[in-house]
Write a structure and sequence with these properties.
The complex is a heterodimer of chains A (203) and B (286). With 203 residues, chain A is an alpha+beta fold. Chain A is built from 3 helices and 10 strands; from the N terminus they run E-E-E-E-E-E-H-E-H-E-E-E-H.
Amino acid sequence: MPLALPGFESIRRTWSNTYGTYAARLFPGEYYVTTNDECVFTTLGSCISACIRDRVSGVGGMNHFMLPTSTDDRRSTWVQLSAGNRYGNFAMEHLINSILKNGGQRQNLEVKLFGGGRILKNMLDVGMRNITFAREYIQTEGLKVTAEDMGETFPRMVVYFPATGVVRVRRLRSLHNNTIAAEEIRYISTVESKPVDGDIELF
Amino acid sequence: METNDKITGLVQGVSGLVTLPDVFIRINQVIDDPDSNTDDIVQAVRRDPSFTVRLLQVANSPFYGFPSTIDTAAKAVSVIGTSQIRNLALSMSVAHTFAGLPNNLVSMDNFWHHSLYCALAARALARQASKCEPEAVFTAGLLHDIGELIIFNRLPEQAKESLLLVLDHMDVLPVYQAERQIISFDHAQVGGELARHWNLPPLLVECIACHHAIAEAQRYPREAALVHLANILAQMAEIDTLEPGDVPPIDPLTWEITGLGQDIIEPVVRQIQEEIAEAEKLFLGN
C-alpha cells in the first residue's frame, strides 16, 4: 500500500478490485489528500463532498462535511448561519490547505462538488443549505467548479481519483437512505456538541 | 444449525406477526377446491365489503383500462379472471400485511415504492414476453423482497452490517451477497421460505426465492427471470438512470430464458415511471 501523507494515516484504505487501486474510505467529518495513484470514496446523503486537485501536479483529495442544523432559537438567524458556516469553512480550508502544503498551486485547483440530497422525508432541506454554502464558498475563493451533481432525493456514492480528476458518482437506491442518514446524524451530533476554534492556518 | 433450519426458524418466528388477510385465504381455498365455481369466488370476495370496494376501484382504474364499467363483484371476477383475483387480493393487502414487521433500516414507504416499481416492471415485461401471466408476475414483483423485511426486523444488527458492507464495497457488492457473507443466507431465501410457509402458489414461491439466482428456478424460470430483470429496471427507475453501470448487473441468462432484448430496458423504465403515482394510490393507499 502506498504511504499516506502525514496526518492521513488513520484513514482506512483497502484494495479495490473494481478499480484496481487502493481506495480510502471517508466518513462524515473526515478528509483525505493524496499524491498517490489511488482513489478516495464516500457515501453522501445531505452532506457535501468537495473533490479538489491540482490539475497539473495531480495532488488532491476529498472532504465530507455538513453544516450543523442547530434550531436553538435563543440565537438570531445570522449568528446560527455564521456559526454553521464555520464548520463548512473549516472542512474546505483543511482540504485546500493540505493540497497546497503538499505541492498544489492555488491557480491550478479544479473543484467538483457532490451530495446535498434530500434523503429523508419530513425533514428540513439541510442538503440545500449545504449546497448553497459550498457554491458560495467556491465563488468567494475565486475557484472554479468543473463538475457537480448535487441535490435531488438520492444518496450518492462518490469515487474520486485525484491523480486524473476522474469521478464516478453512483446514485444509491433508497434501501441505503437510513443507514447513510444515521451516519450523518451521528456526525452532526458530535459537531454540534463541540465548539469550533478559529484556528485555521491560511496559506 | 443448518442454514435451512435457520431460515425456517426465522420465518416461524414472524408467523404470528404477519398473517395473510382472510379474504385472500378464502379466495385461495375456493380456487384450489376442484368442486368450486365462479359464484363461490364471488361470494368469497363479497364477504369482505371493504376489499370489494377497493377491488372495484382498481378494476375501474386506468391501470387496468377495461373498456366497460365494473360495478359488481361478479363482474369484477368475470372480467379480471379467477386466478388474477387471487393475485390482486394478495397485491392489495401486502403493504398492510407487513406493517407488523417494522424496522429501522428502510422506511416502509421506500420499501414498497421499490417493490411496486418492480411489480410494474414485471407486468410490463410479461406483456412483451410471451407465455407469461402479467398479473401473476406483478404480484411476484411486489413480493420479491419480503424476506428483507423479516431479516431487517429479526436480525437488525446483521442486516445493518450487511448494508454497511455493501457501502464499504462501493455499492458494487450486491446486498444479497453481503447477506450471505454476514448472515449465511439471503433475503430471497427467507422470502421464498415465507411464501412456502404461507402455501402461496409455486410461481410466487419460485420468483421470490430465485430473483437473484434465476438458474436455480425449476418450474418457472421465465417468470423468475422477469422478476430478476424487473428488480433491476425498478432500481433504474428509482434513481432515474438508463446506465447499466449504475445498477446491479443483469444475469445474461435472462435474455436467453425470456427471449427479450436489451432494447426493452428504456421503454419499460419510462413506462413504469409514468405508472408509479397511480399504482401507489391503488396499492399502497389506505
